[in-house]
Each structure stands twice: as structure tokens, then as C-alpha cells.
Design goal:
With 419 residues, the protein is α/β, with parallel strands linked by helices. The chain has helices at residues 9-18, 91-98, 106-120, 122-136, 143-155, 160-171, 181-196, 224-237, 252-265, 278-291, 308-325, 344-356, 374-382, 403-410; strands at residues 212-217, 242-245, 269-270, 296-299, 332-338, 360-364, 386-390, 398-400. The chain contains 14 helices and 8 strands. The protein binds guanosine-5'-triphosphate (GTP) and magnesium ion.
Length: 419
């Protein structure tokens, strides 16, 4: 998606890191609308009906762009019963006064996101910056420094391959010369962007499916249920009708947790009793979502069962059972990984790829960890699409994954670096 950004990214990042910008005006470009996680075009649909809880509210259709007030319409918010001024203002003026402020939304939203990402990633980037600065200040490059750099990169969970590649890139033609820490960080950022760029793929819904079935998997506590809540909010904002299946029947609280999200986002939640058969529940939910012609069905699953074999069996059964109603389902299997678990995330990814045929990754909790580099290691090892990342607990804290923003944040850039 952002191929054109690649050439020159290193230079721009270096400019951002050293404060020496070569491009006079790049702010204007920051406006470029970013692909949103649930990237869809289709118009708003009626929300799924017929489930236990009716949606608290209708999924709002896409926000209308700040509308110009229709000149002829009588203004609604006119002050009541005031003696008319001598000269009544023209209707246009009244309408204008009553009209909502035109919203200039996209830009602040995007800026807000980058600063959240940067702040969230600050533990990872500060540690890297600290180490890189300590290694590279006023010394001529030698193999000892390169070894130290490699160690620091491995410590940040970037993975051995990536650490070696960055180190090689730093070494290239620079032996015995001084290299500024900012330059090393810019190399780090551009190597990271190179690996991540092809993996940055928004979660696309197949509009031919009613519903598009999304199975959400991952070990306990990674953020599955929260992520479902956030996704459901985002889909609803995009005018999509969503049904949620509380497929984590292992934990009683999981059902309440989902119900809260469902109420908040207007999505019906199909749930059963604790201990109910998760596959049966997923079947019922899909049936209801199909009847309602919903756009999306999000299926939550248990992260923890008595043992791995049970978990494997349960997930396999869910898949088997939904296929009875739609043999192309599930259309997406999202693996939710928790960045704070560092290298553990690698073995989790391995296991769930085998168990559940993962089609994409969402990584949560990139805030509050110095191990954010794990996302790079995962991307490199599994070559799976990374759809979105989470840097906090609010709905706005889950956003589509952008390789360049992530690279700039990990390199410690204070602001977004765009083409
Ligand atoms: N800081 C931070 N916390 C998050 C993020 N995503 C989720 N959490 C928190 O992580 C905790 C666990 O989230 P859940 O959504 O319950 O995780 P789960 O995978 O459903 O857990 P189980 O149902 O036990 O398998 C909650 O307190 C969430 O608020 C994130 O991106 N950042
Ligand atoms: Mg859960």
C-alpha cells in the first residue's frame, strides 16, 4: 500500500531523528487518509436483528462529511420567541449559525494515533536509543561495537535475523569511521520498515459474505475479548452490522465482558451458559447472523483450557461446525498476541498456526513493554499479515498496522515520517 514511501524513508527518518529536515513541508502529506482496519466500502446495512439482546443502538452509518447547511431549510435551533430583530437575518445566516461545526476529522485523528503509538512504544524505543547512544557516541566503528549493537537488538526482541541484518547494514563501508547514533537508529528504522511493509495488511471484509466470519484465537489474557470489542466498535462505525459470539464458555466473566462491549457498540451478543459447548454456540451465532444478514460475525474463544489438546479440539470443532453452515467459513482467523510476552509470542504463533490456520495477526499491549520488537520477529518468521496493533485499552487504541509508523516509532522519531 505504501510502496512509494520506501525510497528515501531512511533519509527522512534520519532527518526526523537529527532534527535536520531536508523537506520543507511534509505536514501537508500527513493528511493522506490511512486505511482503516475494517476497510470497507459497502454502505450501511440494517443491523442484525433477532438475537437475545437487541442492539442498544443502530450501528451508525458512516459519518457524513461535514455537510453544508441547506440554505432553504428553516433552522431548527432558532432561539424561541424572541422578538424579531428589526431586520431579520437572511435564512442562510440562521441556518449557518445552527449548523454543526464542520469537522476536520482525519488529520488530528491520525496525529493522535501516531503520538499514542510513539508514546506506547516509548519503552522499547527509549531502551534501544539508550543502548545505541551508549555504543556509538564518539567512537570509531569496530567489531566490538557491532557485537554490542547486535546484543542490544536481540534484547529488544527484534529477532536474531533482524539484529544481524541491521548490524551488517551499519557495518557496510563504515569500519573505522565514526557513525552517529541517529544514523544507526535510522538504519534500524528503515530495515524494520522493509520487513514489515509487506505484512501491513488491513483486515478486509468480504462483502459477498453475510456474515464474514472472524474467529479470534490466542492464549489467555492476550486481549482477544477486548480486541473483539474494539473491532466491533470500528465495524459499527463503518456502518457494518456485527454479531458477537461469546465462544469463551470456559470463563463466566468472559460473557459479561463481551455483553458490555456488545451493548456499547450495538452488537447483539450470542451467549450460552458457562461450560456450554463452544462449537454449538458458534453454530447458533452463525445461524442467527446469517438470518439477520449481518456483515460480520466475531467469535471469541477461550484462551485457556485444561490442556493444549483440549484447546486444539475445541478450535477444530468450532471450525468444523461453522463450515456446516458456510463451507468457506471462517473467513479470517485472527491470532491475538500480547507484545509483553516477548519471545513467547513466537511459540504461540507457531502453535496456533498449526491448530487453527491463522490468517492474520493482531498484536496488543505494545504500550508498556520494552519488547515491542517482537512484532518484527513474528513478521519475519511467519510472514503473516499484521492487521492491527493495540497500544492501550480504549477503543481508539487499536489501529490498522502501518509499517512506516511502527518503524519510526521504534527508531524513536518524535513525529510521523512520511514520504
Ligand atoms: N495496555 C493494554 N492493555 C490491553 C490491550 N489490549 C487488551 N488489554 C488488556 O488486557 C487484559 C486482558 O484482555 P482480554 O481481552 O480479557 O484478554 P483475553 O485474551 O480475552 O483473555 P482470556 O479471555 O482470559 O483468554 C485486559 O485488562 C485488557 O484491558 C492493549 O493494547 N494495551
Ligand atoms: Mg477473553
Amino acid at each position: 500500500m505504501s510502496k512509494e514511501k520506501k525510497p528515501g524513508f531512511f533519509k527522512r527518518l534520519l532527518g526526523a531523528l537529527t532534527g535536520k529536515k531536508e523537506e520543507p513541508e511534509k505536514e501537508a502529506k500527513a493528511e493522506k487518509p490511512k486505511t482503516k482496519a475494517p476497510a470497507q466500502r459497502a454502505p450501511a446495512k440494517k443491523p442484525a436483528a433477532k438475537t437475545k439482546k437487541a442492539p442498544a443502538k443502530k450501528a451508525p452509518a458512516k459519518k457524513p462529511a461535514a455537510k453544508k447547511p441547506a440554505a432553504k431549510k428553516p433552522a431548527k435551533a432558532r432561539a424561541p420567541k424572541k422578538p424579531a430583530p428589526e431586520k431579520a437575518p437572511p435564512a442562510e445566516e440562521i441556518a449557518e449559525a445552527a449548523a454543526p461545526e464542520p469537522e476536520a476529522e482525519p488529520e488530528p485523528k491520525k496525529k493522535g494515533w501516531f503520538s499514542r503509538l510513539r508514546d506506547g512504544m516509548s519503552k522499547t524505543s527509549n531502551k534501544l536509543t539508550e543502548n545505541i547512544t551508549a555504543i556509538f557516541t564518539k567512537r570509531k566503528l569496530d567489531s566490538g561495537m557491532l557485537q554490542e549493537l547486535e546484543d542490544a537488538l536481540i534484547q529488544a526482541d527484534l529477532g536474531v535475523d533482524m539484529a544481524m541484518r541491521i548490524t551488517e547494514e551499519v557495518a557496510r563501508g563504515r569500519y573505522d569511521t565514526e557513525i552517529a547514533p541517529e544514523e544507526v537508529r535510522a538504519i534500524l528504522g528503515s530495515e524494520v520498515a522493509k520487513v514489515l511493509e509487506p505484512m501491513a495488511q488491513p483486515l478486509e471484509l468480504d462483502s459477498a459474505k453475510h456474515p464474514h466470519v472472524i474467529l479470534v484465537v490466542g492464549v489467555n489474557g492476550t486481549g482477544k475479548t477486548t480486541t473483539i470489542g474494539k473491532l466491533s466498535h470500528q465495524f459499527a462505525q463503518d456502518g457494518k452490522s456485527v454479531v458477537i459470539a461469546a465462544g469463551d464458555t470456559f470463563r463466566a466473566a468472559a460473557i459479561d465482558q463481551l455483553q458490555i462491549w456488545g451493548d456499547r457498540t450495538g452488537a447483539p451478543v450470542v451467549s450460552g451458559k458457562q461450560g456450554a459447548d463452544a462449537a454449538g454456540l458458534a453454530y447458533d451465532a452463525l445461524e442467527q447472523a446469517q438470518e439477520a444478514q449481518a456483515d460480520v460475525l466475531l467469535i471469541d474463544t477461550a484462551g485457556r483450557l485444561q490442556n493444549k489438546a483440549d484447546l486444539m479440539e475445541e478450535l477444530a470443532k468450532i471450525v468444523r461446525v461453522v463450515k456446516k453452515l458456510d463451507d468457506s467459513a471462517p473467513h479470517s482467523v485472527l491470532l491475538v498476541l500480547d507484545a509483553t510476552t516477548g519471545q513467547n509470542a513466537v511459540s504461540q504463533a507457531q502453535a496456533f498456526m498449526e491448530i487453527a490456520g491463522v490468517t492474520g495477526i493482531i498484536m496488543t499491549k505494545l504500550d508498556g513493554t520494552a519488547r515491542g520488537g517482537i512484532l518484527v520477529a513474528i513478521a519475519e518468521k511467519f510472514a503473516l499479515p499484521i492487521h492491527a496493533i493495540g497500544v492501550g485499552e480504549t477503543v481508539e487504541d487499536l489501529q490498522p498496522f502501518d509499517a512506516y509508523d511502527f518503524a519510526a516509532a521504534i527508531a524513536g522519531a518524535a513525529e510521523q515520517v512520511e514520504a
